[in-house]
C-alpha cells in the first residue's frame, strides 16, 4: 500500500515537472515570436531573447527528462531487450534503471554544485543582460532529481516484475 502511495506521489512530481517544461516551452515560443515580430516590424533586436532562449531550452530538457524516461521516450537500442522475456527482461530493465539512477545522481550533484557556486560567487552572464547564472542553472538539478525519482520508481517496478516472473515459472 505504501509503495503505491509513493509511486503515485513520484508520478505526480514527474507530471508536475513535465507540465512546467510545457509552460517554459510556451514562453519560449512567445519569446521567439516576439523577437521575429520585433525584427520584422521595427528592424531591431531584443537584448534578452537570444540569451534567455538557450536557458529555456536547457530548462525544458531537464524538467521533462523524468516523465520522458518513464514513458520510454528517450532514444534507445532495444534489440537485446526485445529478444528477452520474463525475469531476464525485467532484470535488464532494472539494470538500466540503476544506470540511469547513477547518471541522474551524478548530474544532479554536479549541476547543484555549479548552481550553488554561481549563487555564492554572484556569477552573471557576460552579456548585456547580465543574468544571475544560478537562475537558469537551478532547473538542472531539479530535473535530475525528478529523473532519479522516476528511475527509482521504475527500478522498484522492474524488481517486482522479476519476482513475479520467477514465481510464475516455479508454479
Question: What does the secondary structure layout of this molecule look like, with pairings?
Answer:
Elements (H helix, E strand, L loop, with lengths): L1 H41 L6 H22 L8 H5 L2 H35 L13 H4 L1 H32 L1
Helix pairs in contact: 1-2, 1-6, 2-6, 4-6
Ranges where pLDDT stays below 50 over 5 or more residues in a row are none
The structural class is mainly alpha
Major sheet: size, sense and barrel closure? none
Give the distance, in angstroms, between the N- and C-terminal Cα atoms: 25 Å
Mean pLDDT reading: 92
Topology pattern, helix = H, strand = E: HHHHHH
Beta percentage is: under 5%
Explained architecture:
The protein is mainly alpha-helical and 171 residues long. Helices cover 81% and strands 0% of the residues. It has 6 helices and no strands. Helix 1 (2-42) packs antiparallel against helix 2 and helix 2 packs parallel to helix 6 (139-170). The longest helix has 41 residues, at 2-42. It is elongated, with a radius of gyration of 21 Å. The two termini are 25 Å apart. The model has no long low-confidence stretch (mean pLDDT 92).
In short:
This protein is mostly helical and 171 residues long.
List keywords for this structure.
171 residues; mainly alpha; 6 helices; elongated
Amino acid at each position: 500500500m505504501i509503495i503505491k502511495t509513493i509511486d503515485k506521489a513520484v508520478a505526480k512530481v514527474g507530471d508536475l515537472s513535465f507540465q512546467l517544461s510545457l509552460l517554459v516551452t510556451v514562453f519560449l515560443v512567445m519569446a521567439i515570436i516576439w523577437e521575429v515580430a520585433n525584427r520584422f516590424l521595427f528592424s531591431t533586436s531584443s537584448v534578452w531573447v537570444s540569451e534567455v532562449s538557450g536557458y529555456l531550452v536547457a530548462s525544458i530538457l531537464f524538467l521533462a527528462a523524468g516523465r520522458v524516461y518513464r514513458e520510454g521516450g528517450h532514444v534507445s537500442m532495444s534489440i537485446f531487450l526485445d529478444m528477452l522475456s520474463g525475469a531476464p527482461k525485467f532484470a535488464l530493465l532494472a539494470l538500466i534503471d540503476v544506470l540511469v539512477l547513477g547518471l541522474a545522481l551524478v548530474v544532479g550533484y554536479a549541476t547543484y554544485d555549479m548552481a550553488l557556486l554561481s549563487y555564492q560567487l554572484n556569477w552573471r552572464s557576460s552579456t548585456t543582460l547580465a543574468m544571475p547564472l544560478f537562475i537558469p542553472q537551478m532547473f538542472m538539478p531539479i530535473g535530475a532529481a525528478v529523473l532519479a525519482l522516476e528511475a527509482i520508481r521504475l527500478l522498484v517496478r522492474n524488481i517486482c516484475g522479476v519476482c513475479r516472473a520467477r514465481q510464475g515459472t516455479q508454479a
